[in-house]
Each structure stands twice: as C-alpha cells, then as structure tokens.
Design brief:
Blueprint lengths: L1 H19 L7 E6 L3 E7 L3 E3 L7 E6 L5 E6 L4 E7 L5 E2 L8 E6 L3 E5 L14 H5 L8 E13 L5 E14 L1
Parallel strand pairs: 3-11
Antiparallel strand pairs: 1-2, 2-4, 4-9, 5-8, 5-10, 6-7, 6-10, 10-11
Length: 173
C-alpha cells in the first residue's frame, strides 16, 4: 500500500511539473480576423534545433455570405517576414505584384506554406545559399515569423482586406 501511495504522489508531482514546465515543444499559433476572413499562422512546434527544418504555414478561411469568393492578390495572398528578436537578422519579405486571383469556398482552409523573400545578403544568415534552400532553417536565437494577408475583393483595386499574425519560435544551438 505504501508503494502505491508513493507511486501516486510521484505521478502527480511529475504531472504538475509538466504543466508548469512543459517537457516538449508546443504548437505556435496566432490568429487574426475581420468581417470575412480568419487568418491563422502556425507551426507544429515553438522550439527547433539550429539547422533543423522548420515547418510554418498560414491558413486563410473565407467566412462571408457567399458560397465562393474570389480574392485578388500579388504573387501570393500571403507575404512573410522573419526577425531575430535577440539579434540583427531580418528577412523583410517582398514579392511581385501581378494581379492574380484565387477562389475560396466558404469554410474551407486555403493553406499557404512559408516562402522566403527579400534581399540577399553577402553574409549570413540570409545569404544566397539560404535563399536557394527551399527548406526554412534558422540559426540559434529567438525568432518572430510574421505573415501578412493582402487581398482584395472585386478586382486588384477592389475592397481591401489586410490581416497580420505572428508567432515566436526558439531555435536552440
């Protein structure tokens, strides 16, 4: 009986510590909304090892009155930025601005994976080799990953909808 009580006490202590000090990484997620759209940025983990592939994406859900809506946008409806919170590195983003369009069905998520964009530096971390690698990898540090939705309804000069959401990730050495 004494062993059972000790085992239960130890189990409760470990469970309580896991609530206070999480053992593993947690999902990183942020959301922004307006009257027609829900815009979510997420990564399955909020911590990664330096040089490991980092998974980040955005989801756009149309919630308006129509069954389908056409959004007009630049080369992507979502632009991405990276900022090192404990250092100087910044990927400022940017993209071509053709008038493209995407059809959305009400309630269905349109997934947009992270895309690198910006000015190539002569030195790291955002040098030519970094931009040529299609996988997102970051050096150790605290990072903010921001996604900006920029779309219009009606045509490229139509009713604008702009939303921004950011998550923070810790990249360990």
């Amino acid at each position: 009986m004494r062993r059972l009580i000790v085992a239960l006490a130890l189990g409760l202590t470990v469970a309580a510590c896991a609530e206070i000090l999480p053992v593993g990484p947690a999902e990183a997620v942020a959301e922004a909304t307006d009257d027609l759209f829900v815009f979510t940025v997420r990564s399955p983990a909020n911590r990664y090892a330096s040089g490991a592939p980092i998974v980040v994406g955005a989801e756009l859900v149309y919630q308006g009155p129509k069954a389908r809506e056409t959004i007009y946008h630049a080369s992507s409806p979502v632009g991405w930025q990276l900022a090192q919170l404990d250092g100087p590195a910044v990927m400022g983003g940017g993209m071509d601005e053709p008038c493209l369009n995407t059809d959305l069905e009400r309630g269905a998520a349109q997934v947009v994976p992270f895309q690198k964009a910006g000015v190539v530096d002569d030195v790291g971390p955002f040098d030519r080799a970094w931009f040529e690698d299609r996988v997102l990898r970051l050096p150790a540090g605290r990072w903010r990953i921001s996604a900006e939705l920029g779309v219009a309804l009606g045509d490229c000069g139509g009713e604008p909808h702009a939303l921004e959401a950011s998550i923070e990730l810790l990249v360990t050495p």
